[in-house]
Structure of histidine kinase:
Amino acid sequence: MNPEVLLRVPVRAEQDVVTVRANTKHLADRLGVSSQGQTRLATAVSELVRNAYTYAGGGQVEYVLDAQAQMLYVRVTDQGPGIPRLQDVLEGRFDSPTGRGLGLRSTRRLVDAFEISSSPGKGTTVQVGKALPSTPALRELGTKRLAAELSKLRPASAVEELQAQNQELLRALEDLAQREEQLRVLNRELEDTNRGVVALYSELEDKAERLREANHVKSMFFSYMSHEFRTPLNSILGLSRILLERQDGELSPEQDKQLELIRRSTGELLQMVNDLLDVAKVEAGKTEVYPANFELAQLFSTLRALFQPLLVNPDVRLVFEDVGELPALFSDQGKLSQILRNFISNALKFTEQGEIRVSATRCGAQAVRIEVTDTGAGIAPDDLMRLFRDFSQVGPQHGARSGGTGLGLSLASKLAGLLQGQVGVSSAPGQGSRFWVELPLVLPERELEGSREKSERNEGECDA
């Protein structure tokens, strides 16, 4: 039996990316592919379709079923400018500024079959394949019935696709957590055993490699999902803003209230997606550091102007101390600002009355420490140990008031590491909290060993 084309879908708009992803997942489900396999194939196809729309202005998607070989193929073609240095891209020797090379290499790892051809000025064709399970689904359904089902599918809306992807993300996170827990249990059992040192060492190395691979897959998954989320979220924000500005007519008070709730909730979700993407970029080594000379006084002034409109509680004061004679820093001002914004935002969330004070002091001759001190509820000692971990939320009712993903402090710690620095905290229930970041005055060259620099900075310079 020859392979049969089930459906051809033109790609002309961003909505078509959402539609193709939904079609792919539906077809894989009908053919008996596992939930994880459906997500991997749908993610790979949507990445290729988005590339065709972004770089070539559109294209076409074909679903091809090879019943004899038990394979489902998805072919994405475009008439764009083609991909220069294709072999270098696929072998990891070239990355474009837009990250297209990373997308192609990662897509190839998500599928069972991958073929690509590209010529300058003649477009690009990419075909990916998924092996189908040995089930009677193909014989029972029939290719004509499958093709009819696909052609009758209602185009998925951005909100529906966002909800579906959110469920996939939650399932993937749960699966990763279960795997990490299994690894921890296995490691404890191995540590309790004092037999076969060579065999034990080999098994521990094997489990560590699996954990590193799981973390890599997690980072890539976050990156893909975050990109997929951004388009519908920005669309929702734009549409709600148009309605709130009365561009399409007046609203009732209740409609205005509900739209404002939609806008605020979408903005919070978009911030979570941005945090996920930032963490994924750091873990994948794709975050660049751009050092430049800047004054701390100027940075404090910018932060003061940024947070002043957010001080809605009259019982709380935000104080920025004078930096005195501190010299200029040579570091990445944007990443340092992101760290301090996270510290100050958390302090505002958990401080009911009193003040939040931002200060800076020298740490010996070569480093500076910037602290954010508040008079809030404080943090329990048990919570301090996990404060800077991914997805860790602490505070009153473990962050019930603030929401979020628990990635802010984890991201701050990773950004400080990129700047050859470190973060820390001291707190006690009912006594407020003190978060700090310690950085070198001059960011060392990349080739210098970070451990040696940190050791030189910490020799009796700052008290924790």
In short: Residues 396-402, 447-460 have pLDDT under 50 and may be disordered. The first helix runs from residue 14 to 30. The chain has 14 helices and twelve strands. The radius of gyration is 26 Å.
